[in-house]
Amino acid sequence: MWGGSRLSCSGNRFLGVVLSRYRGTQTECTRLITSAVYSENQFSWTPQTKSWVFSEYRIMWFKSYRMTFACLNRIKIYRYPWTRLYSTSRTTVDSSEVKTFLALAHRWWDEQGIYAPLHSMNDLRVPFIRDNLLKTVADHQPGKPLSGMKILDVGCGGGLLTEPLGRLGASVTGIDPVDENIKTAQQHKSFDPILDKRIEYRACSLEEIVEETTEAFDAVVASEVVEHVIDLETFIQCCCQVLKPGGSLFITTINKTQLSYALGIVFAEQIAGIVPKGTHTWEKFVSPEKLESILESNGLSVQSVAGMLYNPFSGYWHWSENTSLNYAAHAVKSGVQDHPVPDEFVFKGETEELRGQDSTNAGAQEELKK
Asked: Residues 75, 5: contact at Cβ < 8 Å?
């Protein structure tokens, strides 16, 4: 029933797919796929059954992280009805962090409580987001400068930043993996009918949003979040994936320095009790240089990085040239983006882009006939 095809590939380490021609006139079929991964001196084979959609006489391209190979022989094209770049099995959510914030879910809107520094931080981060977004639009409505923009607030907590962005006219989606945080946020926004229409809250992870939609938001905000995720690079990749070309990513976080350990953990958590013990893990802090490197490698151009300092005695934040403690970063996604797809296949059903490669294809087909 299945006729094999020879695969031409490069690289010492590869993922392969054994497939053949399907004989019939159906528009959808179930195929048996065997994937092979070379590790040290042995192959590991894993059979899977998946559903594919095909059209006649196309070219099938397999794309992995480090190599690309073509299977040409006038075979039919098989591809997913949608492309899922990331799987929810690769989560960036730290379960221990979820437990920490679950216990504090009812305290988000206590402006004099443990989240007081985040309430005060809005004096800096809201104008920072607003002003940088306004640079991308020709005009705006008075009183609703962000009207028409779609913003994703990742790790929104109780909605401390989500609501101010909604008041500026934006349509905001706030997501958080802690269900109790979302309940608190929904309850608070219900007191304002206008916000109730502009803001949507969801108890889910960023990876789940990626699997549902891509390039849907004008801006993604991750404020005081990246120091709590378990896989920063995957997190940034996901942020980039949901951003429209030319969209903005805003991050506020803590630098990884000796000073941040002394003040952010020893003083703030263990001595002064400004934040609960165990809220932060110094090893998860990230320097502006490392963050910029990750952003740039994912097609995001860093526009600005600014230091932020908190005065525990006055309870206010102010901007600073010193980034050794807290800092804010703004990056913009490039207009043409090649998404990184680690260890996944991308199936391209259109062959128009390959028409200019006739000579290469001809050589590859001759190889397949041998």
From this structure: yes
Sign of the dihedral defined by the CA atoms of residues 225, 217, 130, 136, in that order: positive
Is residue 227 annotated as involved in ligand binding?
yes
Per-residue confidence band for 138, with pLDDT thresholds at 50, 70 and 90: confident
Q: Is 125 annotated as a binding residue?
A: yes
Helix, strand or coil, per DSSP, at residue 120: helix
For residue 300, the one-letter residue type is L
Residue 228 assigned to a binding site: yes
**For 33-91, what is each residue's pLDDT tens digit?**
334 443 444 444 444 433 444 333 333 433 333 333 333 333 333 333 333 344 444 67
Cβ burial 172-192 (10 Å sphere, 16+ → b, else e) = bbbbbbbebbbebbbebbeee
Q: Is 223 annotated as a binding residue?
A: yes
231 belongs to an annotated ligand binding site:
no
Helices marked H in 320-357: none
What is the pTM for the complete model shown?
0.67
pLDDT tens across 340-358, in order?
444 443 444 444 444 455 5
Contacts of 327 (CB under 8 A, 6+ apart): 252, 253, 254, 255, 288, 305, 306, 307, 308
- pLDDT for 101 equals 72
On whether 155 is known to bind a ligand per the annotation, the reply is yes
Please check if 107 is assigned to a binding site. Answer: no
Which residue has 């969209």 as its token pair?
Answer: 247
The secondary element (H helix, E strand) that includes residue 217 is strand 217-223
Mean pLDDT throughout 102-126? 92
Report, in angstroms and rounded to the nearest whole number, the Rg of the chain calculated over CA atoms: 24
